[in-house]
Design a protein that fits this description.
Blueprint: E1 12-16, H1 19-22, H2 55-63, H3 78-92, E2 96-100, H4 103-106, H5 117-132, E3 136-142, H6 148-154, H7 161-176, E4 183-187, H8 209-237, E5 242-248, E6 252-254, H9 259-281, H10 286-294, H11 305-311, E7 316-320, E8 325-329, E9 339-341, E10 349-350, E11 356-357, H12 359-373, E12 377-381, H13 398-416, E13 421-427, E14 447-449, E15 461-463, H14 465-475
Parallel strand pairs: 1-2, 1-13, 2-3, 3-4, 4-5, 5-7, 6-8, 7-12, 12-13
Antiparallel strand pairs: 8-9, 10-11, 14-15
Helix pairs in contact: 3-5, 7-8, 8-11, 12-13
């Protein structure tokens, strides 16, 4: 009996970014305003997302025409540096580059009569640049942003109308880039919708937790439908191309071997896997029907929805992997949760931002996902956000090398276990604006970008120690770590 001891020859090594965290150029070439561009940076490292935006703060953001308080308006100016940045990715030997298309660059107001030609042309240029180096694109269609106009008109994904608007966008880009993009993802970390990341949030503040959850699960249903339609469109327009789901996978460990804790952890895990269950298997799982019923959540579906979900499951499953959770049963909790999540795991170390580092958890996750779905997997995010120090023009980021090495070692083990893994795009190969805190100083990159939290700096790109290390990893197909 033999088993694969190593990465397959065609393994897709690379890196991943998102439009609103790198592009900048927020008011250039006809781009409309996106939800990410009204999220203000907090002063105290707090996490701030769309769900924190209120009607009042939205008004302030709309009136502000500068990028001072809104770092996702400036990104790292990839819009004007993409050639230089892609050349650096190529120097590391990238086989694939994951990036997202800003919907608001293509349809500035979400429902415009015609797509914005200058927006489409920008991604033509990016794709041409990647083709020059034989780097395959992996494009996320929706990465934590949408045209603000749709949130004002329909409360974002809460409105069923948004499905139609999104699928016009997807059809437009599938047609435009047909034959040039082998891999697509629909919604980045689709599960985080239950945390309110995909809505205006403006209406949420006054509602009870139950009412908020009702809206969020309904919004998610609309995303599931939009995702299935996009899958149908892609398969018709570009039959060679593959499309995947994207989950923020958070494996949950029980806090103790007490069966009551193990059961609490299992339910928590199911609530995380629910999203890929729908997108991979094409139907809502039974355990969620019970959860919805017991928590007074009713998902409104159109007649055709269930047939559509069943007919167009995703081709592969991708996920981000940063940490694992610990769950314990909590007697005092109300029926909504009945468990405590996120306790510290005493066996793990944590990052500067308190994210618990768990390389073995990646092997566990890969095995569990493969067992569950038997569809090819793709790790499309993993990495270490850290406070890097630039000293005499160098960044000695051995801690980042260690982090990535340990995770890559565990991927290799998972491949030997029999897991079908398509590739690995580490998060943020070049420093970018943090999603959760909008900080620049939470750096993930192999490439340092000279910019501080307030947007000061030359934007110069500088290779860190990890740059050469990753080049070696790719050159040896993961053998020399
Ligand atoms: C994922 C997101 O949640 O994690 C990315 O898909 C994000 O957009 C990444 O940047 C890391 O999170 P953060 O908050 O450190 O930027």
């Amino acid at each position: 009996v033999t088993f694969p001891k190593s990465f397959p020859k065609d393994f897709l090594w690379g890196g991943a970014t998102a439009a609103n965290q790198v592009e900048g150029a927020w008011r250039i070439d006809g781009k409309g305003l996106s939800t990410a561009e009204v999220v203000k940076k907090a002063d105290d490292r707090r996490q701030v997302s769309m769900s924190d935006v209120t009607a009042e703060t939205l008004k302030v953001a709309l009136a502000d025409t500068t990028d001072v308080a809104y770092p996702k308006r400036r990104g790292i100016d990839f819009y004007h540096h993409y050639q230089e940045d892609i050349a650096l990715f190529a120097e590391m030997g990238f086989k694939v580059y994951r990036f997202s298309i800003a919907w608001s660059r293509i349809f500035p107001n979400g429902e415009d009569a015609q797509p914005n030609a200058a927006g489409l042309a920008f991604y033509d240029r990016v794709l041409a640049e990647l083709a020059k180096y034989n780097i395959q694109p992996l494009i996320t269609l929706s990465h934590y942003e949408m045209p603000i106009a749709l949130t004002q008109k329909y409360n974002g994904w809460a409105g069923r109308e948004t499905i139609t608007a999104f699928n016009r966008f997807t059809e437009t880009v599938f047609q435009r880039y047909q034959g040039k993009v082998p891999y697509w993802l629909t919604f980045n970390e689709i599960n985080t919708g239950t945390w309110g990341f995909h809505e205006t949030g403006a209406i949420d503040k006054h509602l009870s937790e139950k009412e908020q959850l009702q809206i969020r699960y309904q919004s998610l249903h609309h995303q599931f439908v939009a995702s299935a339609r996009a899958t149908q469109q892609l398969h018709e327009i570009d039959p060679q191309a593959k499309i995947g789901a994207m989950l923020a996978r958070m494996q949950t460990y029980p806090g103790t071997p007490n069966p009551i804790d193990v059961r609490a952890a299992q339910l928590e895990d199911q609530k995380n896997l629910f999203f890929t269950d729908v997108q991979a298997r094409g139907e809502y799982p039974e355990y969620m029907n019970r959860y919805f019923a017991e928590n007074g959540i009713t998902i409104k579906m159109a007649d055709e929805d269930q047939a559509l979900l069943a007919a167009y499951p995703v081709d592969f499953i991708s996920f981000s992997y940063y940490m694992t959770n610990v769950t314990q049963h909590d007697q005092s909790a109300d029926s909504m949760g009945n468990m405590v999540v996120g306790g510290r795991n005493p066996y793990l170390e944590e990052s500067d931002w308190g994210w618990q580092i768990d390389p073995i958890g990646l092997r566990i996750t890969l095995n569990a996902m493969w067992d569950r779905y038997r569809k090819p997997l793709f790790v499309v995010e993993n990495g270490l956000g850290a406070l890097d120090k630039l000293e005499n023009g160098h960044v000695h980021d051995q801690y980042r090398i260690d982090y990535l090495r340990q995770h890559i070692e565990q991927m290799k083990e998972a491949i030997a276990d029999g897991v079908h893994l398509m590739g690995y795009t580490m998060w943020g190969p070049i420093d970018l604006i943090s999603f959760s805190t909008s900080e620049m100083s939470k750096r993930y990159g192999f490439i340092y970008v000279d910019q501080d939290d307030d947007g000061n700096g030359t934007l110069k790109r500088i290779k860190k120690d990890s740059f050469d290390w990753y080049r070696k990893v790719i050159a040896t197909n993961g053998e020399d770590l």
